[in-house]
Every structure is written in C-alpha cells, then in structure tokens.
Input
Amino acid sequence: MKRSPELLRLADSVLLPGFEGRTPPDWLRRRLGEGLSGVVLFSRNVGTPSELAELTAALRAERPEAVIGIDEETGDVTRLEAHTGSSRPGNYALGVVDDVALTERIAHGIGVDLAALGINVDFAPAADVNSNPGNPVIGLRSFGADPGLVARHTAAWVRGLQAAGVAACAKHFPGHGDTAVDSHHGLPSVTASARRLHEVELAPFRAAIAEGVRMIMTGHLLVAAYDPELPATLSRRILTGLLRDEMGFEGVTVTDAVEMAAIVERYGIGGGSVRAVAAGADLICVGGESADEAVVVTIREAIADAVAEGVLPEERLVEAARRVGALTAWTGAFSVPAASAPGDGRGTAILTVGGDANGAAADRHVPVGLDAARRAVRIAGRDPAGVLPLAAAPHVVELAPRMNLAIDKNMPWGVGEPLGKLLPGTTVTRVGEEEARAAVDEVVSGTAADRPLVVVVRDAHRHAWQTDAIVRLLAARPDAVVVEMGLPGRTDLGAVHIATHGAARVCGQAAAEVLTGLPTVAP
Output
C-alpha cells in the first residue's frame, strides 16, 4: 500500500497539534479542512474572551466537529488565566476542603466558561494519587495522597464539567503520583505491584470511568507490573489490555504531549506516535514545545508509512476516528451556555466565578473560587494570636523555585501583591535560588527590622535552598510569618505558618486576608 492521500487524511484524524499565535495559521486551517482531528490550545493562544471565542469560531469554520482541547486544571495549571493567576484554587486545595459538592460546582463553572468560548475538551482532572511528596510534576495538581479522596473528587470533577457539555479527561493513566522523575525530562518508573496499582493508582480512574468520563490521557510512565519494557503511552498491555479490556473504558484515549523526553529520546516523535496508536491511543497530542506544521507532517507520514508497511493496521485508525467522532457528537449535542460576564479585560476568561451549578450567584459578594481558597487555608505556628493580624505594612520575601513545564512560567503568584492592596507600603523582594542568599543576608543585616516579615515559599520541602533560607531568616527574625503556597511539608516553621495548598491568585488573596484580618472582596 502506498502513502496515498486517503491514507494521509486518515493519519490526520488521530493528530491533535498545537500552534503559535492567537489566530489560526494558514497551514492549520488547510489541514483542518482536510481532516485533522482538531487542536490543543495553550496560554500563548489565549487573548481576551472575545479573541479566544473568535479563534475557536475560525477553527470550527474549517472543521465544525473539531476537537478543541485545553489544559484548564485551575490552580497552578491554567491556560485561560495564565496572565493573572487562577480565580479558582487547584485540586489539592479542593481535596483539603473535601467538599465534593464544591468540587463539582467549581468544575461546572469551568465547563460553562469553556463551552461559551467554543472549547469542547478540558484535559482535566489530574486523577493522580500524589503518594510521593517529592513528586516534581504532580504535587498540588492532585487532590491528595488518599486514593479514596482522589477518587471521589475526580468523579465530582467529571460530573460537574461534563454537565456543561465539555468532555473531561482524567490523567495521567495509569497514575503519575508515585514517581520521582518529571516525564517532561525523563522516563519515570512506577514500581508498585499490580495489587497496589489497583488499590491506589487505578482507583480514581475507575471512579472516572464509572462517572462516564469521555477521555483519558496516558502518562509516559514505565509501569513494570504491566509492561517492563514500554512506557504506558506505547504499551498495548496497558492501553488496551488494562484500560479497555479490564477496566471497561470505551471513550477516547489521548496521549500526553508526545514530544516529551520520556518518548522522543527513545523512540523519536514519529516512531513514538506510531507505537502509541498501535497500542490503543486514539489521539496524539503534540505542540506544547513543537508547534509547527513540520512536526505534524513528520507524524502523519510516519503513521501513514506504518500502515502502508503493514506495521499498523488501518482498522486501528478507523477505530480511533470512530471514537473521536462519538466524542464530538456528544459535545455537539449540548447548547452553548451564554457567558454571564465579559471577562476581566486582561487576557483571561473569567465568566462564571461566583456561579453555582445552576448558574446562580453563590454569594453576592464572594466568588466561589475565593470562598474555596479561604476554606483551604490552614494556620499553625507558635504564636498566631500574638502576631496576626499584622500591625503594619510588612516586608515580604518570596522565594521562587523553577516550576515544571506544565505550569506557565510567567503566571503571577504570591502574597505580596494582594497584601500590598490591603496594607499600602508593603514591600516585596522576590528571588530565585541564585539570589536567595544575598536577599537573606540583607534581611538579617537589619533591613526592615522594624516591620513585620513575611516569608513566602513554594514546595520548600523539595528545595533545600528554600528551607535553608527560612531557617536563617527565622534565626534573625523569630517573629516572621511563613506562607507555604506549595505542598506543605514542615508546618512548625515561623511564629505563624500559613498553608494555602496552592499558588492560584485566590490562594494569595486568602493568605493576605489571614495576614491582615481584612477582606480582599468588599463585604
């Protein structure tokens, strides 16, 4: 069989690429018209709500049934609000609150926003059980370390999102939580037994399937209990034997970004894509880092050649296209909800914050995302009553680690900005690892010695330099407040220790309210 135009079009039907810019490039328009399944959007594609709606309308003008997906987990991983920080806390904060009705309501609001913007797939929720606190890529993206808690909140998220007509996508199958390697940079290994996998890692995915989740994303993980040789994304034993035959999933299976090091360093982008489709993947996600037509051409030709050479059955592509068609038929059956507000005008889509599952206002003054963030805050320490509320504008030292590639590197976070609005005169020093020692020396030498000191960290338990900085600062300023905006480790650091369980914008607001005793939203 030659690489015919028909075969190339069939190969296009399993590709879900990204692209640059806020308008569709000509190559993407052309390929959508020729049969490309759809696109994945990133923060680089997101402008104002009206601009994003125009973008998705332009894509659908070429292919009305296109899959248009986005990573809108909220919290640390947001594409709609990457320029301002999320107006909703992430999974870990929701797990701390442990109110499944709240999780469902948050997810429904996201679904309403996405549907109004023309997006029909959300690559969320992360259904990973974060059983390894040193995990460099999941962490706060998980609902927690308890499989039962993660399962019930995964189900609630799926229920709320899909009630708005947007397909949920549980990820990263069969579970990325008990790993110590970021699959963006290498191949993580999961050494658990099959029994342990079923009791822990797979429990949230079973809950998602029982709730009717429309899509599951694969993780680039070596899961020895099922396949000691191939990563899950490329393993027929896992994608077909485990996920479909054993667990009964009938929806669409999509890969995590196929250009990640866990795949391309071993199999190449074309070879990895062919193996993924052969294993049972229905869509190949690509374009987070490799977002041009040449990558799409490389993958489609590799898939077409594999079919022509008899390595990949053509029936497998037909099966994948059938599943994707069923997905878009389902999303297309919903009427698009109207936006309840025009957005905040800063390149984000905040349409339904404050709305409940029926679209009504939860509280006339407090958006539901801020309310959730407030409920997730936990306060510890030696002397909270003696230190809070702060008596004067503080000096804030924010220790900023390098974040993984799933998190937009330019997304604002922290306590300094919302605190400054409540206490004018607040000063902020933000430093990374290289500048931390000098910044600490300056504070220790007496800078701002007559003002309250607030130290803001993010996953301090994973970064020795942050812990060292805290210890040195507290030796000079035992009255300092420590705000942990990552996964909490030690809660005994500081006269007061505030754990927000997330770095979303609303988490910073909630912490500022605790520090000052003042509301960030007028009562």
